[in-house]
Structures are given as structure tokens and as C-alpha cells.
Batch of 3 targets.
Target 1
Amino acid sequence: MKNLLVTGGAGFIGSAFVRHILRTYPNYHVVVFDKLTYAGNLNNLKEVASDARYSFVQGDIADRHTVEQAVKDHQIDTIVNFAAESHVDRSILTPDAFIQTDVVGTYVLLEVGRQYGITRFHQVSTDEVYGTISSGSFKEGDALEPNSPYSAAKASGELMARAYYETYKMDVVITRGSNTFGPYHYPEKIMPLFITNAIDNQPLPVYGDGKQVRDWLYVDDHAMGIDFVLHHGQAGQVYNLGGGNERYNIDITHQILNRLGKPESLIRYVTDRPGHDRRYSLDCTKLHALGWKPAHTFESALQYTVQWYVDNEWWWRPIKDGEFKEYYQRQYAERLKTAQA
Ligand code: NAD
Ligand code: DAU
């Protein structure tokens, strides 16, 4: 592996992966291929912008011509596909872009990868493809029962990747990551939304009863887990990649408020997300047996993350003052009007 195409590398996890790879492998070249949707942000890549081993191509993974050009121009041998529409609530409001990017875009990357003899294709998938589980934990062989347009699109993308392994013997690996948090997280997701709202003394809109469970994974651990599977995973295999930190949403909410010294009166219980998955839980025995475990504890990573948003308003304030405002109105205005404290 020498020349990596990192699609979606200007997003939250993709940019952490790019920073990690350039720090870790002196001989690797990284080409970020990103459409720069509302979620893509070149500020996330400031740290590597002047690194000679890094290049940026603006393009859509569903546009075959641009993908081919990037693969040819940069003699790409490895593709790591982070590019996706990634927010469940937006997939409920407007599913189209999810099908286009997460399904069609993944297919285009696989097809170009096959044509140009890519030596490894890593599909970044999600624990949401399994659907919800009330007790126990999902194993890699369990059925996929996705419940939102987002998770159904992600499941379709990874099934196509699987098919390219089975049919064309393309070297494909898949990771199913759990809920990720950390710096540079677009403030539509619960952690950065609640931290930045609390900083501004704005309400924190908790869906339903707040007793949904997510398994939290620090972003650098997610990046390192992907690096590990990229280098050590077996072709055709799927790996669960979880943090082992299951928490109720309401507990996360309390922790954020406590760490910022803000009052619990900011909490609002609002109308639930339709089709809301109650609990995610991953059995990560397979990846642990291969030799990978997360390096960060949840508590220290959460503390670092909260402080990062306090210290880095330059990053999130322009986002919240921009496109995000319109989305926030659409998603929350009615909910907050009818909310319960
Ligand atoms: P993100 O929304 O922060 O970033 C997505 C990136 O993809 C952005 O830079 C965006 O501009 C780019 N993009 C979107 N459509 C594109 C297109 N058509 N062509 C090229 N680029 C495009 O997402 P994230 O949270 O960093 O998630 C990255 C990947 O990890 C996604 O595939 C997501 O499904 C998966 N994942 C995320 C989490 C999580 O908790 N955030 C957990 C598990 C898996
Ligand atoms: O599990 C992995 C997935 O985690 C990734 O595949 C997705 O890309 C990522 O967005 C994330 O999905 P979730 O839907 O779990 O994340 P989100 O931050 O949107 O919501 C986390 C939980 O918090 C969920 O139970 C819904 C709840 N929530 C979320 C928001 C935005 C609220 O209660 N209020 C909110 O305003």
C-alpha cells in the first residue's frame, strides 16, 4: 500500500484517519476525494494541508469519470471509502442523497477499483446496519435489519462491496463502527449539538425518553481501528469496531451539562425520531482476537472532546451560523415548541 484514495476525507472520521495515516506511515501518499457537501470541511484537514504527501480532489464518488481520473492521476492502489451522507435525521427528511452517495457512489468506487486493479478496498460501514437489539450484542454473521433510510443505504453499499469480493475476488474488507465522537464532529449529531448548545445556553432536545443506548467510540480509536483492519484484516471479512462504552442518551446529556457547569433545566424531551433504534451493541471479539482494542477511555475522551469545543469556537461557530440554521429550524422548531422540560 502506498497511494491511498480516502473518499469523504474532509468529514469527521475521514479527516481523523488522514491525520493518523500521515503521522504513522512516512511513505504513504494520501489523496482525499471529497464532494465537500455541507458536512465536508477543509478546516478539518488544516493540519496536513502543507504536507507534500497529501493531495485534495473535489469530486462526487457517484461521478465515475472524476473517480477514474483521480485513480489514474495518482496511481491509486488502495481505496478507503468514508464518503457518505451520514445523518439519520436528514435521511428521514430527504433520503435521495443517501441512495445516490451511500449506494450508487459505493458501487461506482467498487467498479472503478475493479477496473484499475485496486489491491485493497475498505468499506467504512456502521453498526446501524444490524438494526436494534434489546439484549446481548450483534456478531458479524447476524442478519442485517436496517431501520432508517440511512442505515438501509449503508447496508446496501456494504452488500455491494461483499458482492465484489464474492464475484470478482476483489480484495474487500468492511468495518462496522459504532457511534463515534471527538473533535471536528459536525454539530448535527448528539454530542457536538448538545455541547455547543449548552455552551450557548440553548435547549438540549432529547428524543423520546432519552433511554436509547449507543456504544461510544472515540474518533482516533475509530481511525486506528480502520488502519488496523486495512493492514491486518482478511479479504472478504467484516469486523465489528465498537468502543465498548454503552450509555443512555440521557446519561450523556447529564455528563455534558456537568462538565460544562450548565443547569439541567436546559434539557427538553421532544418528539421522538421515527423508527428510532432503541439500542446498539457490538460483540467485537473477532477484532480483539486479531489484535486491536481502543486506546482511549470514554471518560477522558469525553472530557477532552468537551474542552475541544470550548476552545475551538472558530471551527463550529461559522457552521452553526450557516446552512445549519435552516436545518435546525426544520428538525427542531416544532419539536421545541411542544417540548417537555
Ligand atoms: P461526515 O458526514 O462527517 O463526513 C462525510 C464526508 O463525505 C464529508 O466530507 C462529505 O463532504 C463527503 N461526501 C458526502 N457525499 C459525498 C459524495 N457523493 N462524494 C464525495 N464525498 C462525499 O461523516 P462521518 O461521521 O465522518 O462518517 C464517515 C463514514 O463513517 C460514513 O461512511 C459513515 O457512514 C461511517 N460511520 C460513521 C459513524 C459516526 O458515528 N459518525 C459511525 C460508524 C460509521
Ligand atoms: O451507530 C453509528 C452511527 O452513529 C453512524 O452510522 C451515523 O453516521 C452517526 O450519525 C450515528 O448515528 P445516530 O443516529 O446514533 O447518531 P445521532 O448523534 O444522530 O444520535 C445519537 C442518539 O441521540 C440517537 O439515539 C438519537 C439521539 N438524539 C440525537 C439528536 C441529534 C437526540 O436525542 N436528540 C438529538 O437532537
Target 2
Amino acid sequence: MEIISEANEENMIVMDDVFVEYSNGTVALKECNVCVEKGEFLFVVGRSGSGKSTFIKTLLGEVKPISGDVIVGGIKINKLRRKRLPYYRRRVGVVFQEFRLLNDRNVYENVALAQRVIGASERFMEKRIRNMLKLVGLENKINSFPGELSGGEQQRVAIARAMVNKPAILLADEPTGNLDPENSWEIMNLLNEVNKLGTTVLVVTHNNEIVDRMKKRVITLHDGKIVSDVKQGGYLQ
Ligand code: ADP
């Protein structure tokens, strides 16, 4: 993998004049310039169609910009060869609105799958998984299946799965979109804890109450453009 430089490693995410255009000609991101330091917590907000999902997909290397550079943890994603992408993605934790758990596997197995792909030993894995489930407050649900858990609990399993390989960055795409207010706050508090442990956390959300109350950095997208980037911001200022 191309590591840019040690100095750049302090910047967890750099987008340098990024343009993304889909094959039908839709420009989903334009003139995007972002710099996120290691250990930051930030929200990305914007109306439907403003480019939020494209923003996350670009960081995951699922969508390639037509111009500009995307550098995550010192790795220039837009220059990464296709076969290197899966290795890169294992270094990034991702959480989705719809949890994406395997319903025929229990909690332990759902978290273990993320470890199996990196070839961890069973003994090492079990310790890690138990620690992660403790972190998300679900050690007593280790043998439960997703269908036996509440939405908030399922999202906590998804966070444990995303964090079990200790990624430096966690990307969350509408993580509270399917949850009631109480569970939404639990998930946000958990993401805050994860951030306090040193992980850079980026959350795409529509939840204006959460954004307004958390007083974190807020990047607002409109028609694919960053229209504001505020240190302790609120929703759609
Ligand atoms: P958001 O997540 O904020 O709703 P998206 O990133 O999904 O926004 O979409 C940004 C723009 O790109 C919208 O105009 C959307 O219609 C368009 N778009 C998204 N995905 C595709 C795609 N695969 N092909 C063509 N256009 C797309």
C-alpha cells in the first residue's frame, strides 16, 4: 500500500479537491476539501441527495473520484489497486443504518466473522470478542441471535463487530436511523466512548437533535459541496 508520509499519518482523512461523478453524469461530490485529524469526532449532515452516502463510499474506496485525492490513514485510496482494497477496508470500521448482522449466527459469531477474515487464532479471538462485547454492554447476550435482540442491541453488536479489529477509524452511516430516541442516545454515547479510546469517528446522520446537543465538528453538504465546516456546530446551520 502506498503510505504517503509519516507526517500525514496525523491526518486521518484528507480529501483534496475531490470530484465524484456517477456514470449517468450525476456529480455527487465537487470541490471537496476536508482534513480530519487523528482522534476527531465529526458529523456529516445534509439533505437527502446532498452526497453523504457518496462521501462514505468514497472513503471506503467503493466509489472512485474522477479527480482529486482521498487519503485515509496515510493511504491514497484513489490510487489503490483494486485487489488491495479488501485489505484496506479491513482497517476501517463501518456501521450501517440497518445493522447488517447475520440472522442465523449468534452475537459471538457475528463479531467473530470480522476476526476470522484476518486469520486470528481462536484463543486470541475469544478474548478480544468478549472484551468488545463488554465495551458495548452485551457480554450477557453472547449466545443470543439478532432476532432476539432489540434494535439498539443489534446496533451495539454491529459496533462491536466494526471495532473488533481495532480500526483507527469508524465510519457510521445513519447509525440511529432505525432506532427510537432512547436507543439513539445510547448508540451515540457508545460512539463517543469509542472516540475517547482514540478512534476517529465519522457519523453521517439526519438526527438534528443529536447533532445539536453533541457539539462536535459538523460538515454540511449541499448538492455535493461542503457548504459549512464548523468546529462545535449544529444541524444545517
Ligand atoms: P445522500 O446520501 O446525501 O442522500 P447520495 O450520496 O446518495 O446522497 O447521492 C448524491 C447524488 O448522487 C444524488 O443526486 C443521487 O441521486 C446521486 N447518486 C447516488 N448514487 C448514484 C448512482 N449509483 N448512480 C447515479 N447517481 C447516483
Target 3
Amino acid sequence: MVKAAVAQPIEMSQREWRVAELEALFELPFNELLFRAQSVHRQHFDPTEVQLSTLISIKTGGCSEDCGYCPQSAHYDTGVEKQGLLPVEQVVAAAKAAKANGATRFCMGAAWRGPKQKDIEPVAQMIREVRALGLETCATLGMLQEGQAEELRQAGLDYYNHNIDTAPEFYGNIISTREFEDRLETLRKVRNAGIHVCSGGIIGMGESRTQRAGMLAALASMTPPPESVPINQLVQVEGTPLHGTEQLDPLEFVRTIAVARITMPTSYVRLSAGRQQMAEHLQAMCFFAGANSIFYGDKLLTTGNPEVERDQALLQKLGMHPSMQASH
Ligand code: SAM
Ligand code: DTB
Ligand code: SF4
């Protein structure tokens, strides 16, 4: 009888990852892959802990970019109502509610190609006030110009979310108004300003397995890899070009989480958009595969997310609990 390869929970030090190595991980027998991922996970994290991050859309819709997945692009008719920059008080009230529900990070998202210089001060004010509540701050505002990352850091920004979204080779199939390299440039600015990096992507956009491996290889090979890695399942929104894309096998999504965990052992891997469409046992499997963070709150940016009570019940059922806040 052929014996299955013995799992080796070896320490994966930071290094350049080749796409072929990640493809080999994807091709492992499912149980072998999950066992390896869980073993790596336990070397660095308490497997019962999950980090909770709440989102708010501070500026909604009417975006000039043509990202094929996004309901907020002005290029598509999706019925999303446009909303200008929210008043600071409204953002702070939402942050207080998020904290009261147990979130430790608050992420402010804007449907911009990038912020104009006049936008920086009001956003900086939001960051100052949210941080004063004792929450970790995160913002996702699009591409940054020279000096803007420093201004945001100065205001107390802990994390900047800027996803590479997909593999370099597939990027042009999804977005035409900017290039993959533009994303890397903003990530460099964020890193240089001393802000923690949150970067991940979307699965289920019609990419191949090799391209899923390519996206994760690009993230894992960053020096250092992003501290937070959101793995989104495409939320298909009517009116966007990607609406109607063939649904991905859920087990392939779990594999993607596992490969992210193995290749980025010390990063928080966030089970992100798409949870509302996932059964509880699928989410549980993602946690076993090494996901240790979620978006928490009834809404993502414009689409739904499981209600807070439902998530609390799920965590309780799984014997999991929110992780304490990282100090800043
Ligand atoms: N406009 C900024 C930008 O694109 O960087 C910030 C906000 S944008 C909505 C943040 C991220 O949300 C995108 O990079 C993408 O990964 C994710 N996203 C947008 N629409 C999505 C969808 N329908 N399904 C899953 N993720 C989505
Ligand atoms: C991320 O990776 N996913 C979040 C957050 N970063 C900003 C956004 C998901 C958006 C899903 C579609 C919507 O609600 O508009
Ligand atoms: Fe605009 Fe961001 Fe949506 Fe792209 S993902 S259309 S940049 S809001």
C-alpha cells in the first residue's frame, strides 16, 4: 500500500515563492493540505482566536475605475446609490458601535481611484477620532500619491488595505484603468511610511488554479508579506461584468485559504467578502485551514455580511473567541 506523504509542519521562513511550489500545495490531497495548514497555524496562533474587523463605506459609488467585480464602479449600472464623504461624527458613531459589538479594528473604505489632496484632512480626522476610541485603524482609499501615506500615518493609521486582487497575468482581464504595478507602487509607499500592509485578493473571478497560486505567490514573496491578507470570494452583483461567472467549487476556496496560511505563516488570513453566501460548515473549514480573521458587521461596503448575532453564535458553536487587540 502506498503511504501518504507524512505532513511536515516545518517553519517556512520568509522567502521568494515560486508559483509552481504553490501549485504543488494546491494539488496535495485535501486532508494533507489542511493538516499542514493547521499545523503551521498552531505554530504561530491560538487556533481558537479570530480577529474581528468592521467595515464602513465612507464614500460610496461613482468610482472612475472599471474593476469588473465592483458594484461601485461608475462604468456599470448596479443600482448602488452614490454618497459623498460621510461626516466625521457619523463615522465615529459607527466605530463606537463596532467596538461595543467586540470589533478591534475599524476599516474605512472609499470608492476612489485615489484620494484627492483635499480629501486627506477629513479622512485624517476620522482616523484620529477612531483611534482615540482604542480601535486599530485601517483605511482603503485607492492609489496614494507621494506624501499621502505619511500624512495618514501621522494621523494614526495602523493599516492600509490595498488588494492586488488577482494574479499579474490575469489583472488585465479584470481591470483596464490601472495596472498591477500601480498597486505595488502604492503598497511600497504604505510600507515606507511605516503603515502595516493589508493586501489580498478575490477568488472566483474565472481565474485558473495557476492564477490563484500566482496571486498568493506575489503576496507571500513581498518582503515582508502583508500583515493582513483578506481572501474575498467574489460577491456577484448584477450589472457588473463578472456577474454570472461560473461558481467556484467551495473546496477550492478552502484550499486557497490553506495555501495562504502555509505560505504566510505569521499573517492574519481574513475570510473576507462572500461569507454571507457560505454555509457555516464551509466557514468552519476555512478556520481549520488557517483563516483567523473576519469582516464583522451586518454590511461589507455595499453588500451584505452575516449579522453580528449570527457570527457570535457561530463562533460560540465552534468554541472560538475574538482575539485581543494588538497594541499600537
Ligand atoms: N477603491 C479602493 C480600491 O479599490 O483599492 C478601495 C475600496 S475597494 C471596494 C476594496 C476591495 O474590495 C477591492 O480591492 C476588492 O478586492 C474588494 N471588492 C470589491 N468588490 C468586490 C466584490 N464584488 N466581491 C469581492 N470583493 C470585492
Ligand atoms: C477587502 O479585501 N474586502 C473588503 C475590504 N477589503 C475593503 C471589501 C469587500 C467589498 C465587497 C463588495 C461590497 O460590499 O461592495
Ligand atoms: Fe473603485 Fe475600488 Fe471599486 Fe475599483 S474596487 S471600482 S477602485 S471602489
